[in-house]
Amino acid sequence: MQRILNIKEIAEYMGCCVSTIRNLIKNNEFPHCRVGAKYGFILDKVDKWLEENARK
Fold it and tell me: Is pLDDT of 56 > 60?
């Protein structure tokens, strides 16, 4: 089963603020899904996105 985090949890996981995550979502640059009126983030997809978008 895949782990789904809320926006606060994913911001803590990534070490950034919630507003940064909201900006990424607004620009359609970050993997997310809607869970009712809230955002959900599948941890495996976020990890993959981080690997692909890591600054080298």
Answer: no
For residue 9, what are its two tokens? 């949890």
Tokens of 36: 């009712």
What is each CA distance from 10 to 27, 52, 56, in whole angstroms?
17, 17, 22
Q: Which amino acid is at 44?
A: D
Cβ atoms of 31 and 14 closer than 8 Å: no
- Mind listing the pLDDT tens digit for each residue in 8-54? 999 999 999 999 999 999 999 999 999 889 999 999 999 999 999 88
Alpha helices in 1-56 (DSSP H): 7-14, 18-26, 43-53
Cβ burial of 30 (10 Å; 0-12, 13-18, 19+) is buried
